[in-house]
Amino acid sequence: MFSYKKIEMPYDVIGHSMRSQTIINRMLIMREVYLKVHNVHLEEYKLMEHLDKQEYERTKDDETDEFYEYEYANRLQELDLLFYRIHRASTLLMIYSFLEHSMMRICSIYEEILNIPISVNELSGKGIQRCKMYLSKFSSFDFSDESIKRDWDFLKFLNQLRNCLAHEEGYLSDKSKIKKSTINGTKGLSMYNDTILISHEYVLCAFDITERFLIRFCDNKI
């Protein structure tokens, strides 16, 4: 067993401080973890892409696919549909969890400093939508600002995407709140049959927007 001495850290990377530098540090660590796992199969993925392209060029004039070697294409599909899909989905769940928890903490800070008679938990709704209601009412944060609204629209959709990933494993049915047309029309997202696929670029975008949005709160004077 290891014994860790508790020390004061001005920018605690696993604490609940709402300093902007803490947000930056937390997001940096999550990014590093994401990228390390992402890169595990990256060289193999590039090699399979290259070999599959060569295979296509070798057989493109054939009348049938009889002599096409599918080994490389199958491995690419395996990486996309299993390894990368699961890794990216779990990362988005972590990003959203950090976003929601941070917004709840910000609401609590406003409640304490301004002696607000009600807490965010007393409002209707849930998640980041409820936090927005609370902060719109009791803070000077302007959600109608064009750049903030653009980020907020992304995060609202991330909330819907998170729910689909958490409760339906990214599977879309006729009863799902998110429609296939919405997924196909969103940069960085696509459909494979009835399942949502997430691109590497979309995950990086989620990191950037979440960090930028939370830092704005930290820099906003109460």
Short structural summary:
This protein is mostly helical. It contains 7 helices and 2 strands, in the order ααααααββα.
Feature tags:
elongated, mainly alpha, 222 residues, 7 helices, Cthe-2314-like HEPN domain-containing protein, 63% helix, 2 strands
Q: How is this structure best described in words?
A:
This is Cthe-2314-like HEPN domain-containing protein. It comes from Vibrio qinghaiensis. There is one protein chain. By secondary structure, this protein is mainly alpha-helical. The protein has one domain. The chain is 63% helix and 4% strand. It has 7 helices and 2 strands; from the N terminus they run ααααααββα. It has helices at 20-38, 42-59, 71-113, 127-138, 146-168, 180-184, 200-219, and strands at 189-192, 195-198. A two-stranded antiparallel ribbon has the order 1-2. The protein is elongated.
